[in-house]
Amino acid sequence: MPETLGAVLEDVVRQVALQLTTSDQVLRRDVIRNFIYRGAGVLTDATMIFPEKFYNGLDIQTEFNSNLDVDYPVAEGAEGEEGRIEWTKFYMILEKAEGSFKITDEAKIRGYQNKQWTTGVRSLARAYAKKKNYDILSKMVAGFTLSNATGGAWDTSTDYVVSDIGAGINAILEDETADIALRDIRNMVVALPIKAFNIAAQLTTIANLKMSFADYIRGQFPGLKIVPFKEISKSTGLGGGDDGYVVVTGEETGEHGVYRAGLVPLVEQKRKGASTKYTVRQFFASKVVPDSDAVATSSRIYQMTGILGTP
Question: What's residue 242's pLDDT?
Answer without folding.
Answer: 95
